[in-house]
Write a structure and sequence with these properties.
By secondary structure, the protein is α+β, with helices and mostly antiparallel strands. It is built from ten helices and 17 strands. Helix 7 packs across helix 8. The N and C termini lie far apart (about 125 Å).
Length: about 425
């Protein structure tokens, strides 16, 4: 398209641009130096100021007569700036011939400080000898304000992070105390019986729903239970607390295991019938120590079967098929079972965090068979020893163990072996 065909508005824009460039080119070099948006100065090699522009003089609040030939560059700096100039700036300039982007502060006649960025370069003669130093000074007040604000923001973020960590620690401490309140502080001593327990918390930030207990019923009988409430957090903790106290109260009224679980089912179903359904799995049982053994009568509601480690080195599950979840339905079926524990035998109850741990490269479930095999491999030296071995097993799962796990082991101590007599 030829110029004559251009739109009138486009022609006006081009003419305005030409005028602007023409006005810019009319500025003299002296005016560009004096009115530059940064400070310029030239000093002799000893630092005496030989030339300075108007911009820098205005920043300093000084006249040219007060500065040129009367002051050195370091006279413009703060005390800290002078020290830095002598120890770092000047040696670097002498060694390299230039220094770029150094943060310093200059002071005006009122003593006010102004942050600046300084770049200096040595001008040399034809023979290579130093003649003078040319220095450019940029106003860094906006940058300093930005850095200060950035630092303040970082400090605020760091303080918020520290506060959040402190709050999280306090929360974890509170949750740990609450979690402990849902478990017996220690297991009671049962004549003729040894007991051991362990609780693994998967997350310090969440309340778990696993529980266990062992308590006397009178008449040489002892009740025990272990279970797992569905879910985590405060609501699960509330169900756990209700479950523990209900089972304790039910056992004192009627210690039959099926009756105790039936009472718990009624309480949970009626308590949570109008909101979110809350349920649990549990094994409840009664121990009756005898002269040479302990009789065990238990019932299960949807819980993994108890595992028995025998003194002869074998291990097997005590089947309780058909037991239903507790609290899910108004009426539920619970499966009873009986066994006897002889010296060296141990009854192990556990929650499914153990058997549902993920293992190996394929992240497969640990499973019931692996647990039975592990228990069978352990020496039959009592509940405490078995709990210790299982604690090590849980620790070995690492991040594959992502659920709380409760363990309760009850057994009859094996008689001490008679000392061997050397012949």
């Amino acid at each position: 398209m030829c110029r004559g065909d251009q739109h009138p508005d486009r022609e006006q824009e081009m003419e305005a641009t030409d005028v602007a460039f023409t006005a810019l080119l009319e500025d003299s070099a002296e005016e560009l130096y004096e009115q530059a948006p940064c400070g310029y100065l030239s000093t002799l090699m000893d630092g005496t100021i030989a030339k300075i522009n108007t911009t820098l003089l205005e920043w300093l609040g000084l006249s040219r007569r007060q500065v040129v030939g009367r002051m050195r560059f370091t006279d413009l700096l703060t005390v800290g700036g002078k020290l830095y100039h002598e120890t770092h700036f000047a040696p670097l300039l002498q060694m390299n011939g230039e220094v770029s982007g150094i943060a310093l502060e200059i002071k005006d006649t009122d003593g006010q400080r102004m942050p600046v960025l300084v770049t200096s370069k040595v001008k040399t003669s034809d023979g290579g000898g130093p003649m003078l130093v040319r220095t450019t000074i940029f106003d860094a007040r906006d940058r300093r304000a930005y850095e200060t604000e950035l630092l303040r923001a970082r400090q605020a973020a760091e303080e918020a992070r520290r506060q959040a960590e402190a709050d999280r620690e306090r929360l974890q401490e509170a949750l740990a105390v609450l979690q402990q309140s849902l478990l017996p502080a220690e297991l009671p001593t049962v004549p003729g019986l040894e007991a051991g327990s362990y609780y693994h918390t998967a997350s310090p930030d969440l309340l778990g729903g696993d529980f266990y207990d062992l308590f006397p019923l009178g008449a040489d009988r002892w009740a025990f239970f272990l279970g797992d409430v569905c879910g985590k957090g405060p609501q699960a903790a509330a169900v756990t607390s209700l479950t523990r106290y209900t089972l304790r109260a039910a056992a004192l009224h009627d210690p039959d295991p099926v009756t105790a679980l039936t009472t718990l089912n009624t309480v949970l179903h009626e308590r949570y019938t109008s909101g979110t359904t809350r349920y649990c799995t549990a094994i409840f049982g009664v121990l009756r120590p005898g002269s040479d053994h302990v009789s065990v009568h238990l019932a299960s509601g949807g819980h993994p079967s108890a595992l028995i480690q025998r003194a002869d080195g074998t291990a097997h599950y005590l089947p309780t098929p058909g037991g239903m979840l507790i609290g899910a339905l108004p009426r539920a079926q619970f499966t009873p079972a009986r066994t006897q524990l002889f010296p060296g035998d141990t009854l192990l109850l556990y929650t499914d965090g153990l058997t549902e741990a993920r293992t190996g490269a394929g992240r497969e479930l640990y499973g019931d068979d692996a647990l039975r095999a592990f228990v069978a491999e352990q020496p039959a030296t009592g509940p405490q020893a078995l709990i210790t071995a299982l604690t090590g097993l849980l620790a070995g799962f690492g991040d594959g163990l992502d659920d709380d796990t409760a363990l309760l082991a009850l057994g009859v101590p094996a008689p001490l072996s008679a000392p061997r007599v050397k012949i």
